[in-house]
C-alpha cells in the first residue's frame, strides 16, 4: 500500500474485504456480536421513507460515486435500498429508550457514511453491500467503523445507551487524546489553549469516514487497514493525521 497505493482499490479491494470478513464471521472466536436472521427484500422497505438528511446524503454520495466513475445512473435507488434495509436490520438489535435527548429519539442521528462507502467500494451493487454489512456487523471492528451499528444497541449496557455517548467517543477518541499528549505534546497543548478538544474533530472524521477530508483511495485504505489489522488502527491513523498537520496547527495557534 505504501509503494503502490492504487494496488488495493476497485474490485480487488471489494473482493479482499469481502473474503476477509466472510472468513472472520465464520470463525466463532471472531464473532463478537450476535446478528440474528434478516433477509432483505423490496417488499419490506417499499413503504419506508428516508429522512431529509439521509436523502441529501444519498444525493451527495451518488454524485461523488459518479465523479469517481464507480456508480451508474440508477444508483440512487440501490443506495436507498441499502440504507433502509440497514435501518431495519439494526432496529432488530436496538432497545427502546425513553429519553429527552433528541439523538435517542431518532433511528440514528445524521447520515450513514460507512454504508455509503461500502456501496461505492462494491461499485453500487446493493445486494453485495447488504450481505457484506450483515456479515461485518458481527465483528468488533464494526462498532468503531460503522457508527450506526451500536446506536441504541442491545449489546451495550443500558446506562451507556441512556447517556447517548457512542463507544467511538469514549473509546477511540479517549485513546486518541491520551496518545496525542504523549506523542505530539505541542499539538495537544495547542488544542488545549483553544479550549477545543481534539476528540471532537476526530469523532467528526470517524463519523464521516474521512469523507471531505481525504481522497477516495485514502478512505479505502483507512477502511481496509482497520478491517485487516483491527479497530485500534483507527486511533493510529488519527494520530498520524495530527502529526502530518502539526506545523499547520502550530502556525494557526500562533496566529
From TrEMBL:
Gene3D superfamilies, A to Z: Ypt/Rab-GAP domain of gyp1p, domain 3
InterPro entries assigned: BROMI_C (IPR055392), Rab-GAP_TBC_sf (IPR035969)
Domain BROMI C-terminal Rab TBC-like residues, every copy: 1-254
Protein name in the entry: BROMI protein
Annotated organism of origin: Jacana jacana
Amino acid at each position: 500500500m505504501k509503494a503502490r497505493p492504487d494496488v488495493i482499490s476497485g474490485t480487488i479491494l471489494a473482493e479482499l474485504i469481502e473474503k476477509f470478513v466472510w472468513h472472520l464471521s465464520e470463525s466463532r472466536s471472531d464473532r463478537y456480536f450476535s446478528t440474528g436472521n434478516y433477509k432483505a427484500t423490496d417488499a419490506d422497505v417499499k413503504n419506508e421513507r428516508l429522512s431529509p438528511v439521509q436523502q441529501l446524503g444519498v444525493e451527495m454520495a451518488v454524485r461523488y460515486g459518479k465523479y469517481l466513475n464507480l456508480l451508474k445512473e440508477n444508483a440512487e435507488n440501490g443506495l436507498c435500498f441499502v440504507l433502509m434495509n440497514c435501518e431495519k436490520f439494526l432496529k432488530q438489535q436496538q432497545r427502546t429508550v425513553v429519553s429527552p435527548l433528541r439523538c435517542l429519539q431518532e433511528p440514528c442521528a445524521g447520515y450513514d457514511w460507512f454504508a455509503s462507502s461500502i456501496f461505492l467500494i462494491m461499485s453500487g451493487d446493493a445486494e453485495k453491500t447488504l450481505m457484506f454489512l450483515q456479515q461485518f456487523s458481527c465483528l468488533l471492528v464494526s462498532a468503531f467503523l460503522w457508527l450506526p451499528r451500536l446506536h441504541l444497541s442491545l449489546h451495550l449496557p443500558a446506562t451507556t445507551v441512556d447517556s447517548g455517548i457512542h463507544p467511538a467517543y469514549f473509546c477511540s477518541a479517549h485513546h486518541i487524546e491520551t496518545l496525542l499528549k504523549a506523542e505530539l505534546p505541542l499539538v495537544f497543548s495547542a488544542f488545549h489553549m483553544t479550549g477545543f478538544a481534539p476528540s471532537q474533530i476526530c469523532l467528526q472524521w470517524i463519523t464521516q469516514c474521512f469523507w471531505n477530508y481525504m481522497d477516495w483511495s485514502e478512505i479505502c485504505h483507512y477502511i481496509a487497514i482497520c478491517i485487516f489489522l483491527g479497530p485500534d488502527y483507527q486511533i493510529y491513523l488519527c494520530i498520524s493525521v495530527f502529526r502530518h498537520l502539526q506545523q499547520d496547527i502550530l502556525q494557526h495557534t500562533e496566529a
